[in-house]
């Protein structure tokens, strides 16, 4: 008995039947792909190695444009959390599928026409509809009537603001501040500029999620709990929602 032939016969019989036309179409498609890769490889100096070296940068470029992008911190306006020269990885998909920036998020945005012709990184303090005031009797910023304890991220020795303001954030915009308030040009300084110091949500490039360089600073950026108890603007009476002293909103 030819025992070596038996497994071969069983293997054949156990294969699921595939329509011949479908199988042939798949084979033709696979051959076409291989032929295309082979033609490109033959055309490129270095063959398939060069092809791989070409595809990798293109993939990284698409990743950079569509998914995540590194940004270098140019100033001390977000110290101590973000230092000059740090590189952060910005999640460009964070607000692409219906999600909106939230209070406490660190965002990168295009400041053209509002702050200046550059990209900026700041912390979101107020979102559309919020009533933001500085400061209460204890020197704290209030959002929708609730004082915010910023001690976990505010630069040591800085006050929440030396500039008084009382503003309502228009829908579709953000009120943003740097963590190092005495070294930050932010919404407070542009209240009299076009847009009133507010940043359109559409101009937000993404949320800074990680410090990725230098390696010693590697860390994930978390949203602080300071804003967790701030009520939604939609729950406030109209009298509390409107600024009490618009004339004091200047920078």
What features would you describe in this structure?
This protein has 251 residues and is an alpha+beta fold. The protein has two domains: 5-65, no CATH class; 69-248, Umud Fragment, subunit A. It is 23% helix and 22% strand. The chain has helices at 5-14, 20-43, 48-66, 238-241; strands spanning 68-72, 87-91, 106-110, 119-126, 131-134, 142-143, 146-147, 165-168, 173-177, 199-200, 204-213, 219-220. The strands form two sheets. Strands 1, 2, 3, 4, 9, 10, 11 and 12 form an eight-stranded antiparallel sheet that branches. It has a four-stranded antiparallel sheet with strand order 7-6-5-8, with no helix packed on it. A hairpin with a 2-residue loop joins strand 6 (142-143) and strand 7. Helix 2 crosses helix 3. The longest helix has 24 residues, at 20-43. The protein is globular, with a radius of gyration of 28 Å. The N and C termini lie far apart (97 Å).
Count of the domains: 2
Count of distinct strands: 12
CATH fold annotation of the largest domain: Umud Fragment, subunit A
User: What is the general shape?
Assistant: globular
CATH top level of the largest domain? Mainly Beta
In what range is the share of β-strand residues?
A: 15-25%
State mean pLDDT (0 to 100 scale).
Answer: 79
Q: What Rg do the Cα atoms give? A: 28 Å
CATH superfamily of the largest domain: Umud Fragment, subunit A
Tally of individual helices: 4
Proportion of residues in helical segments: 10-25%
Sequence of secondary-structure elements: HHHEEEEEEEEEEEEH
């Amino acid at each position: 008995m030819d025992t070596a032939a038996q497994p071969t016969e069983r293997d054949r019989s156990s294969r699921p039947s595939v329509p011949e036309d479908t199988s042939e179409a798949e084979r033709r498609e696979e051959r076409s792909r291989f032929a295309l890769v082979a033609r490109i490889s033959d055309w490129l100096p270095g063959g398939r190695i060069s092809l791989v070296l070409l595809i990798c940068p293109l993939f990284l470029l698409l990743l950079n444009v569509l998914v995540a992008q590194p940004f270098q911190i140019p100033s001390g306006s977000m110290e101590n959390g973000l230092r000059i020269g740090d590189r952060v990885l910005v999640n460009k998909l964070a607000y692409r599928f219906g999600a909106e920036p939230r209070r406490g998020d660190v965002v990168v945005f295009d400041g053209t026409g509002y702050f200046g012709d550059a990209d900026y990184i700041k912390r979101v303090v107020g979102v559309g509809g919020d009533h933001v005031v500085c400061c209460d009797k204890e020197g704290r910023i209030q959002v929708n009537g609730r004082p915010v304890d910023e001690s976990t991220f505010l630069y040591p020795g800085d006050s929440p603001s030396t500039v008084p303001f009382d503003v309502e954030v228009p829908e579709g915009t953000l009120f943003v501040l740097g963590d190092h308030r005495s070294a930050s040009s932010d919404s407070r300084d542009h209240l009299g500029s076009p847009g009133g110091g507010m940043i359109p949500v559409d101009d937000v490039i993404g949320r800074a999620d990680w410090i990725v360089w230098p390696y010693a600073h590697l860390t994930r950026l978390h949203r602080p709990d300071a804003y967790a108890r701030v009520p939604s603007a939609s729950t406030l009476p109209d009298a509390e929602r409107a600024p009490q002293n618009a004339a004091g909103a200047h920078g």
